[in-house]
Every structure is written in C-alpha cells, then in structure tokens.
DNA sequence: AGCAACATACATACTAGTTGGTATGCTGTC
DNA sequence: GACAGCATACCAACTAGTATGTATGTTGCT
C-alpha cells in the first residue's frame, strides 16, 4: 500500500520520513558549501522540494536544523569513513592508510573541505550547541583511531613506543590541516602530497627493530 | 575652534590615516570573531568610532574593506610572528621552536583561532579575491620556513635528509590543525600538547648521525 | 575657494520566522 | 466497514527585523 512515488527528489506527499531526510540532506549540502550562518533556508527548501511549512514543522528553527545536520548527517559521514573501516580491520596501520587513500580528490570536495571541521571552525566561538556536538564527533574520531592503535600495539602490528592518543590526535590535526590548505589552494596535488606524507608517517608506527633508536617519531609521550 | 576631544578612541578630526587604521583594526577584530560575512559593519564603525560616511569614503564596499584587512593587518601579523624571527635567526630549528612557544594560549586567542586560516576557510570557496590573498600569505609563510630550513641545511644545522618544502608544509598543516582542534575543544592544554609534539618533530630535523636510518621522519621526498 | 574628509538620514534588499489555512491519513465508534 | 473526528503534514503569502550601501549635507585643511 506504500506509495511508490517515482522520479523526482521531491518527497512523496505525506511521507514525513522522506521529507525530513530530504531537508537534512539539502541542509547539509547548503551548509557544506556556504557555512551555517550564510546557508540560505530558501535554497535548502528549493533543493529539498518542500516549503517553509514543512521545514518548521519538522524543526523548531534554523539552529535546530543545523544541530540535526551535525548529529545525523555529519556524524554518519565521519563514522562511515573512519570508525567502520577501523572497527574490523586486521592491521590498523594498513586500515588507516586505506582510509587516507580513500580521501576524495574531487574538485568539489577539495573546495568544500571537511564538513565537520568547517562547522566546528565557524560555530565553535559563537554557539555552544554546535561546539559541543562537533567536539563530540572529534572525540569519537580520535578515540576510534587511538583504540585501533592500542589494539594494534597489543597485537604486535604497532610499535610499543607509540602513544595511541598522541598519535591519533596528531593524525587528525595533520589531516585537517592539509585539507584546509588544499581548500585554500584549490589544488588537489597539495592534498595528495599531504596524504602521502601522512602515509609515510603511519609506516613509521609499525613495529621497529628494538635496537634502533626512534627519536624521530613525533608524537610520543 | 578645534574640538579637543580627548579621551575617546575616536580618531582625531581630519586624520585620514588614523581613520583608515582604526577601520582596519576594528574590522580585523570583528572579522576575527565573527568571520567576514557575519561581520557587522555597524559594530566595526562603533569600535572604530566613525560613521558610514568615513567607511565608504575610504573603502568602496565591505568586500574591499575585507581585502584590505587581509592585505595589511593579517599579512602583518603573520610576518611579525614568523618571517621576522626567522629572517635573522642563528639556528633555524631553535628559531622555529621559539616561534611555536610564542603561540598564545590565551582563552580569547584559542577561541578565535588563526585569523589567516579562518578567512581562508570561510571565503576560499566563495570569493576568488579572498582566496588569492590568503593563498599568497600561506605561500609566503611556507616559503619563509622552507628557506630557513634550506639555509640551515647548508649551514649544518638541519639534516641533509630533510626536504625543506615538504617539512615546511607539514609544519603549517599540523600547526593549523592543532589550532583548529583547540578552537573547537576550547582547551588550551590541547594546543599546548600539539605544540609540544611539533617541537619534538622539529628536534628530529637536526643533523643526525649518518649511520642511523631515518625512516621515521614523515615529510621527505 | 575648493576639495578631501567626514556625518546623517534614508533607500533597498534580503531573510528567518509567522500565520492562517488545506490536505491527508489514522483511529475509534457504531 | 464506513464514517466522524482529529492530529499530522504540509503549503503560500506575509511580516518584521536587519544588513549593506547611497544621497546629501557639513566641516575643516591647504
């Protein structure tokens, strides 16, 4: 009996779940391009194919919509990219390298940057609700990498000298930094070079011969 | 007849240089806090102690004011913090470490983040004028560090295995990354830990005994 | 005197949010 | 099992506030 509405991206009449998702997806795209404050609500409605009434039925205001975008859409993107591949990986270093190599070098993605970092940078000083939400996602991200490294260390794939928390934070900082630089230069080669540097760093975290000093691994306690 | 308005921060009557500087400084502060697009022109005027007429006498529009802020104020901040100390440094590694240690851990500075990166992140995808200007400053910054490292290598203070360009870009990416994370967490200890990690990395760039393999130095060609 | 350097008041445009109303589908009742 | 009753889902037009930018007037140097 479910209405099989066909081709448009406009949600079928009376399909609140679809409507809500259409709004979230459209809002995410608009926010990703323009930032939250400059995100045009009317543009979101046009893409979602609904009107103001629908929006303000599902969300109290623009801020609540933005919160939901972070809680649902951005959170899902990050978890799909990082947590899921790391969760059931045989070798953590290989898995991390694979994730890095999976980073898009598409023009559009480079120009828009990291959605999580974008919102965090824009809203952290201005809105505690956004700040807490993005900080939570950063913590989850950092914790997932640290956990993987810790397990890899126990399993003999990661060197004992590695501090999982420091290395994890370092990886995230470098990753976001390179993405930021590439967003500015609009040059995919810059991001590629940065990711390559990170891959080389990750290789240094593998188990090393114990007789060799390892002074040159940056993040250690 | 000269109105001897003494105590306010309002520029002296008929002092165009002062007026222009007051506008630039007020605009920088406002943009640093709120970003360019959400920067309130009236708030800038209030802080600068002038009116719309003065603003639009000196600048064609808000965009031109923003461009000037980047070209003058932000450029000066970056050069004072990096280029100047590096220019006449005896030891480049020591100088870079000193610059890092000079990074403010004040609450206000952590919450606002790096002015250059802020504007670059916000405006790069939206305005080519801003993008070119910020990209130029990043290039200058990157070039200055690379030059220092190159000279240090020739002088015997930096290891021959170091690629000045890659290491320089890496330093900037990590620096901006850590600042971004701290801006989000609003935790000065996070930034401190990141800077410490960078200092440890910088120490690995010093001349090393040649018989030791140095696989674990991230940015190399 | 005449132009640069401002101030004041106002026009114009945009945009988040509201209001009042309509259509749809579920649910309990007979 | 059908229909009254009702809550949910949505629409279109409007409002109120805010933002940039402008038109015009005034003041002070040189």
Q: What is the terminal separation of chain A in angstroms?
A: 61 Å
Number of domains of chain A: 2
Q: Could you give me the name of the CATH homologous superfamily of the largest domain in chain A? A: Tetracycline Repressor, domain 2
**Can you write the helix and strand succession of chain A as a string?**
HHHHHHHHHH
Continuous helix count of chain A:
10
Quote the beta fraction of chain A. under 5%
Outline:
The first copy, chain A, is mainly α and 221 residues long.
Layout of helices and strands, plus pairs?
The structure is a homodimer of 221-residue chains.
Chain A lengths: L15 H19 L6 H8 L3 H7 L3 H26 L4 H10 L5 H6 L2 H9 L4 H28 L8 H22 L2 H16 L18
Chain B binds a DNA duplex (30 and 30 nucleotides) through helix 3.
GO molecular function, one term (chains A, B): DNA binding
Keywords (chains A, B): DNA-binding, Transcription, Transcription regulation
Pfam family, one (chains A, B): TetR_N
Give descriptors for this structure.
homodimer, 221 residues, mainly alpha, Arc Repressor Mutant, subunit A, Tetracycline Repressor, domain 2, 10 helices, elongated, disordered N terminus, DNA-binding
């Amino acid at each position: 009996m479910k209405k099989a509405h066909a081709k448009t991206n406009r949600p079928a009449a009376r399909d609140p779940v679809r409507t809500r998702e259409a709004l979230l997806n459209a809002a995410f795209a608009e926010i990703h391009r323009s930032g939250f404050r400059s995100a045009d609500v009317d543009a979101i409605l046009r893409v979602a194919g609904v009107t103001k009434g629908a929006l303000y039925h599902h969300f109290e205001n623009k801020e609540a919509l933005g919160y939901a975008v972070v809680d649902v859409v951005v959170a899902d993107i990050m978890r799909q990219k990082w947590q899921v591949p790391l969760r059931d990986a045989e070798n953590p270093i290989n898995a991390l390298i694979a994730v890095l190599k999976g980073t898009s070098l598409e023009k559009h993605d480079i120009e828009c940057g990291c959605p999580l970092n974008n919102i965090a940078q824009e809203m952290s000083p201005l809105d505690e609700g956004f700040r807490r939400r993005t900080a939570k996602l950063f913590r989850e991200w950092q914790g997932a990498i640290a956990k993987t490294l810790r397990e890899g260390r126990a399993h003999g794939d990661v060197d004992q000298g590695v501090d999982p928390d420091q290395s994890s934070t370092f990886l995230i900082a470098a990753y976001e930094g390179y993405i930021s630089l590439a967003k500015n230069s609009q040059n995919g080669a810059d991001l590629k070079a940065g990711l390559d540097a990170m891959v080389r760093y990750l290789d240094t975290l593998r188990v090393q011969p114990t007789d060799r000093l390892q002074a040159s691994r940056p993040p250690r306690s």
